[in-house]
Amino acid sequence: TPKFEEDEEIPADEAKIEKLIAPSADSHKFELLPLGQVSLFVLYWLAGFYGGYVLVTRAKFATVIFTMLMVYLGMMGTLAGVHRLWTHRSYKAKPQLEAFLVFCFLLNNQRPITDWARTHRLHHLCSDTDADPHNAARGFFFAHVGWMMVKPHPEVVKREKLIDVSDLKKNRIVAFQEKYIILLLILIPYVIPSVTPMLWGESFFVGHTVNFFRLLVTLNIVSLVNSATHLMGYKPIDKTVAGTQFGIAGIVCFGEGFHNYHHTFPYDYRASELGDVKHNLATQFIHFFETIGWAYDLKTTSDDVIRNRVLKKGDGTD
């Protein structure tokens, strides 16, 4: 298994981008997105809440199980796919796994992979500052959901265009997702999950409304990583970096709660230093595909590097 040392975390080109002091938030007054977009976003949430009600009161048991499976696959598309594979390049994947991960990621009704990766790479470079798209220094609401409803801060706009995603532009599978994004975003996150329950006698209405609940669940799980794991918990690995270890989030977020470790060593495929990965479902997912040869070159951080960082910069809570 390839191992990397402390100075290998940030590529040389990205290291040149001007940083801000964290945590920080200036007095910038954010401008709301157009009313139509904000209204659709609010309706999206309301539809999700109603879908949860329908799931509990009207859905068949098979639909409940199917919804749980779709949540799991969607989260693997985000965590093992766009996050650990494409954004951080923490392991490599055969084309068949990449295609599957694209499908899983699209289940979440998300934007192009290159856009997601650009935003997240900037987040790591400028965490908890005005150049962070979901700056947690502005509070839980902004980091969790507010940033999606306003135009980005000028510091974000200035730096985001400097983030290099040329590695992803060269990827044919990623390019396919971007080229056909509109069609794929109709078919995969909406049509397939809404129609499939009809195979076991579920009505389209129930399948469709429950699907909005699923989409809201995955959105909030990912958002908790942006909010809770930056504002709650502790920093046993490095108290000088953003991100905290927050045990509850580790379970709820499928293994992404060890955020202090991840922000310290972002190119470690585990996103956690713990050998026991029973709560790190994304790591288990990657391990499975490693056993069948679809995932390989998994990057880890050596125990000595972890130990030295804890001793030098940890807050003493681990």
Automatic annotation (TrEMBL):
It is found in: Membrane. InterPro entries: Acyl-CoA_DS, FA_desaturase_dom, FADS-1_CS. One of its GO terms (molecular function) is stearoyl-CoA 9-desaturase activity. GO terms for cellular component: endoplasmic reticulum membrane. It comes from the Eukaryota. Its cofactor is Fe(2+). Residues 63-282 form the Fatty acid desaturase domain. It is a multi-pass membrane protein. Keywords: Fatty acid biosynthesis, Fatty acid metabolism, Iron, Lipid biosynthesis, Lipid metabolism, Membrane, Metal-binding, Oxidoreductase, Transmembrane, Transmembrane helix. The chain crosses the membrane at residues 32-55, 61-82, 180-200, 212-229. GO terms for biological process: unsaturated fatty acid biosynthetic process. The histidine box domains are involved in binding the catalytic metal ions. Belongs to the fatty acid desaturase type 1 family. This is Desaturase DES3.
